[in-house]
Design a protein that fits this description.
Strands 2-1-3 form a three-stranded parallel sheet, with helices on both faces. It is an alpha/beta fold. The chain is 48% helix and 20% strand.
């Protein structure tokens, strides 16, 4: 399972990543803004995306809207 975590707060990224690594056998990719989310979605298969709503460049709502189209 591939999980993509998007959050501009490094502490949140660290905490979510650690929690998921301890409880699941998955590959976790961490990014800091919405543009990086879209880039990763083009380059890899992702099973789960965890989006922060407030991020620079593209926020979580904008990313979700693009993903749905």
């Amino acid at each position: 399972m591939n999980i993509l975590i998007a959050d501009d707060d490094p502490i949140t990224l660290l905490a979510l990543g650690r929690a998921l690594r301890r409880t699941t056998a998955c590959v976790i990719t961490e990014v800091r803004n919405g543009l990086e989310v879209l880039e990763q979605l083009e380059n890899m298969r992702v099973d789960l995306v965890i989006l922060d709503l407030v991020m620079p460049q593209l926020d979580g709502t904008e990313v979700l809207s693009i993903m749905r189209n």
